[in-house]
Amino acid sequence: MPRLHLTLNGEAVSLQVRPTKLLVDLLREDLGLTGTKKGCGNGECGACTVLLNGKPVNSCLMLALEAAGKNITTIEGLAPRGELHPLQRAFIEAGAVQCGYCSPGMILTGEALLNENPNPSEEDVKRAIEGNICRCTGYYKIIEAILNVAKEKHAL
After folding, report:
1. End-to-end C-alpha distance for the chain, whole angstroms
2. Are 50 and 114 contained in the same domain?
3. Mean pLDDT, rounded, for 129-140
């Protein structure tokens, strides 16, 4: 089996991986990072979203070996010392977390957007999250949460 070397949530990781192993399965099954959800399995729902070198990707569509030498951030990587990340806090405060299944992917997508565009419009947020499905909130609270973090950062 090939050996995979990558940076995961800021830490160097090296392990043997089956060539057919999907990144979502490596994260959940082999590394115990269950914040990454396994939803549709075909890249339609966004529940499995992680950041690959800062960009959101569907980990259900990516072989683990494709992450070789890359930097992967999961939802666990946003709060490494147990303190909530501003987006996690904003999602809670806005009521954007209901069942919670889509939340990790939505939050990571929001983080990528805010890193690229610190002052997005509502339309920018809508475009950014369009690959993430939420069956509970109607999206308005999610959009509000992301915009609230942008406003907080912009005010600093």
Report:
1. 49
2. no
3. 92
pLDDT band at 95 (very low <50, low <70, confident <90, very high): very high
pLDDT of res. 156: 62
The label of the residue with tokens 């979203």 reads 49
Pairing, β 49-52 against β 71-73: antiparallel
Per the structure, the complete domain to which residue 69 belongs is given by 3-78
CA distances from 22 to 25, 61, 95, 127 (A): 5, 7, 32, 26
Mark which of 31, 55, 78 sits at the end of a domain. 78
Tell me the two tokens of residue 156: 């600093």
Cβ-count burial of 142 within 10 angstroms (0-12 exposed, 13-18 middle, 19+ buried)? buried
pTM, whole model, 2 decimals?
0.95
